[in-house]
Amino acid sequence: MEKLKKIIANAYAPYSNYQVAACVETNDKQFFYGVNVENASYGATICAERNAINQAIARGYRKGDFKSLTVLVNSANPAFPCFLCRQTIVEFFQPDDDLILLADGSQKNYKMRDIIVHPFTKKDLT
After folding, report:
1. Which of 2, 25, 38, 49 is catalytic?
2. What's the pLDDT tens digit per position in 44-87?
3. Residue 37 domain-assigned?
4. Contact 98, 71 (CB under 8 A)
5. How many other CB atoms are there within 10 angstroms of residue 11's CB atom?
6. 49 is an active site residue
7. Among 3, 6, 72, 84, which is disulfide-ready with 102 (CB 3.0 to 4.6 Å)?
8. Which CATH number do you get for residue 108?
9. What is the layout of strands, in order, in the sheet containing 31-35?
10. In a domain, 126, yes or no
């Protein structure tokens, strides 16, 4: 939580002023961080959740290596990841992995299975 509080200031959010920081914890207790990076071309924006997941992937971690995802927003209430992030989360996390949502002193805990009911998966490609 303390690390997320420090790095959320690094978020680049000049359009929305909605700063987000995320932390992925792996099964071997490594931590990977990300912040949201907005772009004037909104489709080029990358969310903190995907940024943190991509950091872990770049270091060699793969599906099944993840334990939890913690997301901090600069808002009064915790917020769920967007649906693009949810699809990415489903790709790499297991249904029983933890999702921890934080904001201004409040916390909500979920399991990954709670965030998307019918994800697009490898089975859909056949």
Report:
1. 49
2. 999 999 999 999 999 999 999 999 999 999 999 999 999 999 99
3. yes
4. no
5. 23
6. yes
7. 72
8. 3.40.140.10
9. 31-35, 20-26, 66-73, 98-103, 106-111
10. no
